[in-house]
Amino acid sequence: MAHRALSGLLLCGVAAVFLVLLQGAQSVYIQYQGFQVQLESVKKLNDLEGQWATSPGLKTQRSQSSMCHDLALPLDLQPICASGEADSIFQALSTIAADDCELCVNVACTGCS
C-alpha cells in the first residue's frame, strides 16, 4: 500500500513539472525593434511603473529609463536599457501589451493562440 501511495505521489510530481514546462513553452512574446521579450515581463514592467507612480518620493524621477536601475526589472528587459532608447521602447511595449497581445491582435505578438 505504501508503494502504491509513493507511486501516485511520484506521478503527481511528474505531472506538475510537465505542466510548468508546458506553460513556459507556451509563453507569449513581443518582438519590437530587434528585442524579443515575454508578455509577462512587460506586465511586470507595468507593475513596477505603477509602484513608481504611487511612491511620493519617486514621482519626480518617473522616467521609464529609471526602471533600468530597478533590481526587479525582468532579465529579458534589461538589454533594452543599453539601447539608448529605453524610454520609447518601454512605452511601445506597454502599448503593444495592452492591445490584446494574448489574443494575437497585434502582429508584434507571437506564441499566442
UniProtKB/TrEMBL annotation:
Keyword terms of this UniProt record: Disulfide bond, Secreted, Signal
| GO molecular-function terms, A-Z | guanylate cyclase activator activity
For this protein, the record's Pfam families field holds:
Guanylin (PF02058)
Disulfide bond entries: 68-81, 101-109, 104-112
One Gene Ontology cellular component annotation? extracellular region
Q: Where in the cell is it found?
A: Secreted
What InterPro entries would the database entry show?
A: Guanylin, Guanylin_sf
> Where primarily located?
secreted
| Signal peptide stretch | 1-27
Q: What does this protein do?
A: Endogenous activator of intestinal guanylate cyclase. It stimulates this enzyme through the same receptor binding region as the heat-stable enterotoxins. May be a potent physiological regulator of intestinal fluid and electrolyte transport. May be an autocrine/paracrine regulator of intestinal salt and water transport.
Family affiliation? Belongs to the guanylin family.
Its recorded name reads: Guanylate cyclase activator 2B
Organism, per UniProt?
Answer: Lipotes vexillifer (Yangtze river dolphin)
Upper classification of the source organism reads: Eukaryota, Metazoa, Chordata, Craniata, Vertebrata
